[in-house]
Amino acid sequence: MLYPVVWQNNSVLLIDQTRLPGEYAVVEIHRSADMAEAIRTMIVRGAPAIGVAAAYGMYLGAREIETSDRTEFLNGLEKVAQLLRSTRPTAVNLFWAIGRMMQTAYETLGTITEIQQTLLETAQTINAEDIQTCQAIGDHGFRALPKTPEKLIILTHCNAGALATAGYGTALGVVRSAWREGRLARVFADETRPRLQGAKLTAWECVQEGIPVTVITDNMAAHCMKQGLIDAVVVGADRIAANGDTANKIGTYSLAIVAKAHNVPFFVAAPVSTIDFTLAEGSQIPIEERHPSEIYQVGETIITPSGVEYYNPAFDVTPANLITAIITENGAFSPGDLVKCQNNS
Ligand code: MRU
């Protein structure tokens, strides 16, 4: 299996997702500031994966603080948390993981060395839990898929695979489980402009596992659905509001509208930690805006004329009424029923 974030020999190893599929490179992270930069520049990306990376970043920051005074240590750790929180605004898993690490620090009594050790163990627990969570999402997910045809064609957007989590994936976790159970014919992967996570990462993951995959450009989805080529859409999520409105990679919203127009079921697969019960609805979710070069530059080539303006939101919000079900590690829920997913197991 593919693990994008690994704790090894006192440092964190990240698969450099900016270089795939051309090059498989591993980056070694020793310091919290380098982890923050790796998250900001998308060496590590995908909501659950940046949560796990940030948890290790908190530990790296904790071991950089040289003091035996508890208050001084906790103040120093708050600064590390602030730095990591400032990297990317939309994926709530980042804030969730940092919050869990801070809570661990406040609740652990003992010497600074003991608190640091507990923080490392907590980061490792968050890492291990995420893999189990994704496997549970995958297994609940394939059962929620349409019963016919026997072998489904699933369209997905962006990369919600092993690379975007601690391993196995959310939307691609559902795909993996469906493949294992003989319920999958093929994946259609949207290329996902502007950063092409679908064409580069989802396609690469499928190829690694021998899952048949067809890459299409984002503007081909409606045509494919009209031709009856797609049986279900399964996507991941960066943050889900309490009412089920879901922020995910830009382009997800238009895909959901197109799916509704063609009667194709539209599933969101995400861990409970991606649900932000503090936000009543999707309009409250902060949307990251990234540098315009992601639009005007392809490789080394500038593709637009000078004198134009750019708008580059990295995520959009799909209204709950376009979502067939939200698949979590605790089962599949109607978007209006999300409160139940906290208690089920
Ligand atoms: O900007 P990215 O590549 O971090 O965005 C990732 C996505 O939008 C994924 O679909 C989402 O995080 C779900 S990952 C399991």
Structure explained in plain terms:
With 345 residues, the chain is an alpha/beta fold. The protein has 2 domains: 5-133, Four Helix Bundle (Hemerythrin (Met), subunit A), CATH 1.20.120.420; 140-344, Translation initiation factor eif-2b, domain 2 (Rossmann fold). It is 39% helix and 18% strand. The protein has 10 helices and 16 strands. A 7-stranded mixed sheet has the order 6-5-4-7-10-15-16, sandwiched between helices. Strand 4 (152-156), helix 6 and strand 5 (184-190) form a beta-alpha-beta unit. Helix 4 (92-107) runs antiparallel to helix 5 and helix 5 (112-144) crosses helix 6 (171-180). The longest helix is centred in the middle third of the chain and has 33 residues, at 112-144. It is globular. The two termini are 25 Å apart. 5-S-methyl-1-O-phosphono-5-thio-D-ribulose binds next to helix 2 and strand 9. 5-S-methyl-1-O-phosphono-5-thio-D-ribulose (MRU) binds at residues 45-48, 91, 158, 160, 164-165, 170, 197, 236-238, 248-249, 314. Its EC number is 5.3.1.23. Belongs to the EIF-2B alpha/beta/delta subunits family. MtnA subfamily. It catalyses: 5-(methylsulfanyl)-alpha-D-ribose 1-phosphate = 5-(methylsulfanyl)-D-ribulose 1-phosphate. This is Methylthioribose-1-phosphate isomerase. Catalyzes the interconversion of methylthioribose-1-phosphate (MTR-1-P) into methylthioribulose-1-phosphate (MTRu-1-P).
